[in-house]
Write a structure and sequence with these properties.
By secondary structure, the protein is mostly beta strands. The chain contains no helices and three strands. It has a domain of 38 residues.
Length: 59
Amino acid sequence: MLKSVQKEDVTPVCPHCERGVSEIWFRTIETMLGKRYVYMCPSCKKVLGVTHRKGFWMG
Ligand SMILES: [Zn+2]
């Protein structure tokens, strides 16, 4: 069983540009399977993840 620990004082780091991200950008795209949310790093604009539900990371 994974334990989830809330860490409000830790800044996530983008795996692409290795800069700390204080916010995450997202936009919607229409795919053959329906609408998807694409999350990206504000610094380098690279995609961090895609999900089918808003605000649900990697879901
Ligand atoms: Zn980045």
